[in-house]
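FYI - complex with nicotinamide-adenine-dinucleotide, inputs then prediction.
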Amino acid sequence: MKYAVIDRGDTLSQSLAEQFHQLAAERGFEREDAEPDIVISIGGDGTMLQAFHNYVHRVSKVAFVGIHTGHLGFYADWKVNELEELVSMMAASEPIIVRYPLAEIEVETPTEKLQYYALNEFTLKGADATLVVQMNVNDEPFEMFRGDGIVISTPSGSTAYNKSVGGSIVHPSIESLQIAEIASINNRVYRTLGSSFLLPRHHHCDIISKKEQRLVLAIDHVSIQRSDIKSIRCSVSPHKVNFARYRPFPFWNRVRDAFIDM
Ligand code: NAD
């Protein structure tokens, strides 16, 4: 088995990464940073987001496993004291591969078209002032949005930023995108839907900039700022992310453990 490890960079995560390499060498796993089959993320959900983006160019060829060094993560379900058990299971059994939907955007500027993928979400905000954008769904005008921002989340990202802005939690078997508002302006003059909505696969939403504005576009944990964005097309990606499960941990159990039985 060819594997790579991405750790959060703190002392505990680094020492666990070293331990993992030792245990893996004893089992005859091959360390392969460029083209691994399995990527082990050691840290938190943010580390898994980083691991995903490090290998997004070969997303269909890798499967991810997460070890959390802090509280239970949505993407990191192995505990620090379970490292040996994980390596034994990796050596002894084939994992079940769970595939989760990704979000895809195409950003159009006057000079280029840029494509990005998100595991959690894209977030669009105005850098200096209220965000003003026209939203079209499947090429039909939908609404004119004025407010703080828009969160475009995947099902597995629905428990992250999307949840904080009142969006619904969506099971990752439902191939969809959720579009949620951050503090929209609603009065006699301005009107938006006022709730989040789900787009199925093969539908798309265009977000068109309606004034000269500097936009902050967050792609999971990384933000960029640009003044030249004309429009952003959002859709469910044809690609999916693979997670290697050596034992079951159903999505709704994660939701319960993270938000209810804390
Ligand atoms: P981080 O790793 O500190 O993550 C922030 C928090 O979000 C952590 O508690 C993490 O466990 C949790 N989280 C991340 N992905 C999750 C998921 N899919 N389901 C449930 N919880 C999840 O910070 P970071 O590395 O910058 O992570 C970026 C993420 O932080 C973004 O993708 C976004 O979802 C989230 N975020 C949330 C808010 C908010 O809730 N108001 C604001 C900004 C960013």
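The chain has a mean pLDDT of 96. The pocket of nicotinamide-adenine-dinucleotide is lined by residues 44-46, 49, 73-74, 120-121, 156-157, 159-161, 164, 220-221 (CB under 6 Å).
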